[in-house]
Amino acid sequence: SWTLMDFVENKIKEIKGTIGDKKAIIALSGGVDSSVAAVLTHKAIGNNLKAIFVNHGLLRMNEVEEVESTFRDYMGLNLITVDAQERFLSKLKGVRDPEQKRKIIGEEFIRVFEQEAKKEKDYGYLIQGTIYSDVIESAKSGKKTFKIKSHHNVGGLPENIDLNIVEPLKELFKDEVRSVGEILGLPREILYRHPFPGPGLAIRIIGEINEEKLTILKKVDNIFIKTLKETGWYDKVWQAFAVLIPVKTVGISGDKRSYGYVAALRSVDSVEGMTADWSKIPFEILDVVSSRITNEVEEITRVVYDISSKPPATIEWE
Ligand code: XMP
């Protein structure tokens, strides 16, 4: 009978058979799919798998450290972190258009990944965390479908690398991928994380990005997510995050007038992200989040909660 335990066992054998004693690379993002694909492949070929994690500087607070401690220290993977923060920031300087941001980040990501991959000559395989719904999506996305956003997924395929592609999760649904991850011993925090877009915080800062705005948004987002976790709401919603609106509004700090940015909180209930309802998080919790943000992040004078559903609003603001 078909069980996921059998799947894991057979897949490991299959990967061993395919790759043998050659070497493989994977772009690890810390998202569910690439994480499970990496750990599954690591079980099959051990340190002949090199996982490359590109830090583009548009990640959430402590994300780099969490990925490193989970995959290198806890799961024992052969993991390389590429610090490409300055590279991405300088490419994004002055760029305001969301699709332009996506394009730059997608292309730059591939370049950084390629550079890292080419450092070693004997890599024969590229592992990808493609899952069943991605296969369906790309089959559907013929020329006729109208795309609202380009949805660059970090980990997009490098074109000038001569590698064989292995997609060990291709026949699995998302919930099966999570179960496989559990069987392989991946922590819950990785497997039940909210979706996070490839271009990261770049599309959650409206308009131009800089280091100052990134620092502010990381703090705000962290407060929101931490509070949702403390109150048990993190697992009840499909995706939650903060957005930085770089419009200055007036506030009072102590007995002085202050002038700071607006933070928007977005939380949605959804199945696949195609449609979404705004989450009915209790006012008491939003109240706690709001005061924590304005108390702890001095650059923010005002917090708003996004009560738009999709459609017509998309989940991300850009
Ligand atoms: P939207 O904003 O289109 O988002 O309603 C639907 C889901 O897709 C995610 N999203 C992206 N994911 N690259 C990604 O990998 C992108 O450019 C991108 N844009 C949106 C979004 O976070 C939500 O889960």
TrEMBL record:
The keyword Membrane does not apply. Residues 2-193 form the GMPS ATP-PPase domain. ATP binds at S29, G30, G31, V32, D33, S34, S35. GO terms for molecular function: ATP binding; GMP synthase activity. The keyword Lipid metabolism does not apply. One of its GO terms (cellular component) is cytosol. Its EC number is 6.3.5.2. Keywords: ATP-binding, Glutamine amidotransferase, GMP biosynthesis, Ligase, Nucleotide-binding, Purine biosynthesis. Pathway: Purine metabolism; GMP biosynthesis; GMP from XMP (L-Gln route): step 1/1. It catalyses: XMP + L-glutamine + ATP + H2O = GMP + L-glutamate + AMP + diphosphate + 2 H(+). Homodimer. Catalyzes the synthesis of GMP from XMP. This is GMP synthase [glutamine-hydrolyzing]. It comes from Petrotoga miotherma DSM 10691. The chain holds residues 190 to 507 of 507 of the full protein.
